[in-house]
């Protein structure tokens, strides 16, 4: 039996969501594969809950603090650069102990492939132990931190770690020339598959005589905006996730334990979101128009937003618009942003990418 280790970023749940789409398809294709998942505690709970439906015994979970991600100012989408700088330097300076601990795991388990989205230490481990590694992402923490923090101590360790990756898959909506990888393969969109029956049930539940459209709003679980957003009782129904505080009769907050966000996105007429890649991807493969919160401070967001604008399937809004949604003409946005999908209906390529991954261990 072949074995694959997934190192998944602890930042938010987007990295976990897209990794789950790949893991689910890998298992569907080849039942004779063992999967190890290493990520943060909350992300691991999410992975375990989502994959439990597969009734597959050879998935093993380990809580692992893999990275720092971004640290935001309270009640804001703005990065707290002072705190981030301190945490990033401390994180990088403790890699030796992280790698030392991981070596014990590899002594006890024969691993054929290490996949990282996008934990840099994984590539050091792979090179040291002679195990093939695959980087898969739309960005790395190296260009993220250089762009935000400039030159900080130990930053070159990040560059050197990523440079050790044997194989590199780059997701759409990225700018490969801005990444440090010299050799890479461009791949398609990855998203958890939506359930058509559930999508229809969601629309039947919330739409009818009173409400004509579902507006889904999410800022990701790495964000917490405490300020109340008052929604007028119009003909839209607003479904939103953790990190937001909507008030109105025509609103519904999904439970933190909801594991099928992709079904709610697919059931929506419009997604309002920050430019998190996984939420965007789940909207794109379901042909859902997007209003994206303009966060130019973060290079990943800038790049994703620019690519979406080029495709014509998204428009941008600022923070003030998010807190004044009653003044937004959603019909105008939906009508205009839906049109490009008729010409280019983007597909979910998770299955084909999973097949490509399995070729590395044949």
Automatic annotation (TrEMBL):
Gene source species: Thermoanaerobacterium thermosaccharolyticum M0795
GO MF annotations, alphabetized: hexosyltransferase activity
Pfam families for the chain: Glyco_tran_28_C
InterPro entries in the record: GHMP_kinase_L-arabinokinase (IPR053205), Glyco_trans_28_C (IPR007235)
Superkingdom as given in the UniProt entry: Bacteria
Domain Glycosyl transferase family 28 C-terminal: 258-299
Lineage of source species: Bacteria, Bacillati, Bacillota, Clostridia, Thermoanaerobacterales
Keywords from the UniProt entry: Transferase
Keyword Manganese found: no
Protein name stated in the entry: UDP-N-acetylglucosamine:LPS N-acetylglucosamine transferase
